[in-house]
Amino acid sequence: MSESVFTKHIERRNRIVKNKSILQTSYLPEILPHRKEEIDSVAAVIASVFEGDKPSNILIFGQTGTGKTAVMNFIGNELKKVDPKGETAVYIYINCEVVDTQYGILHSIGNQTIKDFDKRIPFTGWGMDKIYSETKNYVDEQNKVFIVVLDEIDRLVNKSGDDILYHLLKMNEDLKNSKLSLVGISNRVNFMEFLDPRVRSRLSEEKMTFDPYDAKQLEDILRSRAELAFDEGVLESGVIPLCAAKSAKEMGDARMALNLLRTAAEIAERNGDNVVTEAHVLYAKNKIELDIVSETVKALPQQSKTVLMSIIFNTRQDNKTMITGDVYSTYKDLCNILRMTVLTQRRVTDLISELDMLGIIHARVRSFGRAGRTREIELSIPGEICKMLEEDENMADLKSYRHPNQTKLM
DNA sequence: AATCCACAGGAAGCCCGGGAAC
DNA sequence: GTTCCCGGGCTTCCTGTGGATT
Fold first, then answer.
1. Which stretch of DSSP H or E encloses residue A179?
2. What are the residues whose beta carbons fall under 8 Å from the beta carbon of A142, sequence distance 6 or more?
3. How far apart are CA A17 and CA A22, in angstroms?
4. Residue A148 in contact with residue A179, Cβ under 8 Å?
5. What confidence tens digit (pLDDT) does each residue in A382-409 have?
6. How far apart are CA A400 and CA A206, in angstroms?
7. Which of A56, A148, A185, A406 is most exposed, with minimal Cβ within 10 Å?
8. pTM to 2 decimals?
9. Residue A358: pLDDT above 90?
10. β-strands A58-62, A89-95: how paired?
């Protein structure tokens, strides 16, 4: 490759991380540390496939980054090892965050296994009853056990009721030759409450809960990946324990731990350093948090941004805390400058609550006696984010805005 | 004890866009 | 195509409330 603007970056990039994909959360390692028992209990249920029985339906609970998806995909791989051609069992993985309609699910079940291109189900066009019966017939013809993993199953419940779950459970009864087992994965334990009782009991023939990893376990996970991803000596000795400790505090999220390690390495690379230090990790932690906040702020609807902007202006105006009335009057000013419709105070209080829920501001109701009962509001995002919001194209007209010392205009 | 401030936050209903059903 | 339905954003109207002040 000839010399180009990329050259020095490419050279640097290769220096620290040997294999970046290993640090991605989507990477499925050969062994899953500290998930032996979980794998075993899932395998025990699934094993009945090889005795010609239908495995019980399984529901798996656990917070994000506790290895639920990894365990199921691991099981999927193991199935393929035992039964490479899929003669007895068919493993189907569906992420309901991506595919969240009845049609989409049936479509996935059909098309993940139909080899014959001409017989594939079109991605749109068929009516519900047609796709249901076609899928059912296809599944039945195969004379196999279908293991359908529904990741993020809670996404299905609010969307279109629990119809799709009901249909899938019912399909199993309509099948003569094949069998259909469902494995639901959810990080919300309470999602069951919203289910039809009959669906609930049939879906949860087996229930499992994955506990969060503790710091020690996270360390092992990181170590096993780091061995593959880094050359020896690239990580300072404190790096992995630090990543683990930081993530253990956030509910033992392995996904986060990996993110932290990967980001730290990326930062080190970009700096041209040849070792990853604890300082890099701390920097990475900060960067990740900042990224999350800035994404949420960017994604805010215009009205909420304007409310937030009002809060920022009030913060600048010496008073660290403010009340709803202060925010609302500034908000009205800003709306006029930006030529936006002015929402009612009732609505704005709701927007303030939303900002509070997102952790962008901190608001608590307080009574000031005769001075009324209202919310006391405080900004809780770093200055960089405020700057970013000001740079927002829609906020351009506010450059000249001066907060009136007397807030009461009306 | 009564008053009263400055809202909080519930209830009902309007409007609008989008998707499903007819 | 039209109609129906649903959900989200929003308004209007409303009742409720903690505690300094009277």
1. strand A179-186
2. A90, A113, A177, A178
3. 10
4. no
5. 999 999 999 888 888 888 788 775 443 3
6. 63
7. A406
8. 0.76
9. yes
10. unpaired
What is residue A128's predicted lDDT score, i.e. its pLDDT?
64
The continuous run of DSSP H or E covering A182 comes out as strand A179-186
The pLDDT, as a whole number, for residue A160 is: 46
Nucleotides of strand B lying closer than 7 angstroms to a protein CB: 3-11, 20-21
Which one-letter amino acid corresponds to residue A344?
A: T
Please name each of the domains of chain A with its CATH number. 36-210 (3.40.50.300), 213-297 (1.10.8.60), 300-400 (1.10.10.10)
Cβ contact A345 with chain B strand, < 7 A: yes
Instruction: Tell me the CA distances in angstroms from A32 to A28, A184, A199, A232, A360, one per residue in order.
Output: 8, 20, 32, 22, 36
Rounded, the Å distance between the CA of A195 and C1' of C20 is 50
Q: E strands along A31-144, which residues?
A: 58-62, 89-95
Q: How far is the CA of A127 from the C1' of C2 (A)?
A: 19
- Cα-based distances in Å from A358 to A17, A294, A297: 34, 12, 9
Do the beta carbons of residue A379 and residue A390 sit within 8 Å? no
Q: Read off the pLDDT of each residue in A260-276 and give the average, rounded to a whole number.
A: 89
Query: What is the pLDDT at residue A406?
Result: 43
- The answer to whether A342 CB sits below 7 Å from nucleic acid chain C is yes
